[in-house]
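Design a sequence for this backbone.
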């Protein structure tokens, strides 16, 4: 089996490649790419029997790549740091999913399952049907209505639509909400980056994630800044600038055509 590895973090690609080559039989790595766009381009020129696909990536999630895959010919294994993606992965017709950090024993079991799936025509047909059902409903889904925030003595449910931006504060995150409200949460910004919808939220700096809907102004001065509707002014890092601009071009009419 020929495998394509898709993950925006290079060290994850190298780790998975090492495990496949050293701990698994009947599978070879055919390619490694770091975005959904690169995966589409690669698949336009090459073929893969299986794709190990990261779910949460900048600009386009792994789910977006599903529309460009023939599940009769290619199997998908989702690789994620969050177990709540498992149900969505299974509904998407994935053969399996792996939790990061990937363990050799689990990867071996998945590779064995992949081999069996290619010899089972009914399973291949079932995967195709699941994929079509998923693609019918997934693009229509908007933001989750609420996000659960652990608080002393209980859980605070925050409307995702009310989150204007998120600010890192060491191992905590400050949620900036409408009406100038703030909530301090004992989760890192990376935790929120993994669960928030990348079509609506973008990380612009190691310390900031912003809701595209609430960006009032974008300035190219000082390396790039955004002003939010609540008045907060956040810097855009050079590393994140291209991702931010691509998101804004998708979310804004006429942006980038001035």
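Sequence:
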């Amino acid at each position: 089996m020929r495998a394509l590895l898709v993950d925006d973090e290079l060290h994850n690609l190298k780790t998975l490649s090492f495990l496949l080559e050293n701990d698994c039989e009947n599978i070879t790595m055919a390619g490694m790419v770091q975005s959904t766009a690169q995966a589409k381009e690669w698949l336009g020129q090459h073929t893969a029997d299986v794709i190990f696909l990261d779910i949460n990536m900048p600009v386009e999630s792994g789910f977006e790549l599903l529309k460009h895959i023939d599940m009769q010919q290619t199997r998908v294994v989702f690789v994620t740091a969050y177990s709540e993606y498992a149900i969505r992965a299974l509904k998407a017709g994935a053969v399996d999913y792996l939790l990061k950090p990937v363990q050799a024993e689990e990867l071996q079991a998945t590779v064995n399952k992949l081999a069996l799936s290619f010899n089972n025509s009914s399973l291949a047909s079932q995967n195709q049907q699941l994929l079509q059902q998923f693609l019918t409903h997934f693009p229509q889904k908007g933001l989750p209505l609420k996000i659960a925030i652990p608080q002393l003595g209980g859980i605070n449910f925050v409307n995702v639509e009310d989150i204007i931006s998120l600010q890192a504060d060491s191992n905590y995150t400050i949620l900036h909400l409408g009406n100038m409200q703030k909530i301090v949460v004992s989760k890192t910004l990376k935790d929120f980056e993994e669960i928030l919808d990348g079509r609506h939220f973008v990380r612009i700096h190691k310390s900031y994630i912003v809701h595209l809907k609430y960006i009032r102004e974008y300035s190219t001065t000082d390396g790039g800044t955004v002003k939010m509707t609540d008045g907060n002014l956040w810097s855009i890092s050079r590393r994140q600038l291209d991702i931010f601009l691509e998101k804004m071009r998708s979310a804004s009419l006429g942006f980038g055509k001035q």
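The helical segments are 10-23, 36-45, 62-65, 85-91, 104-118, 121-137, 189-195, 238-251.
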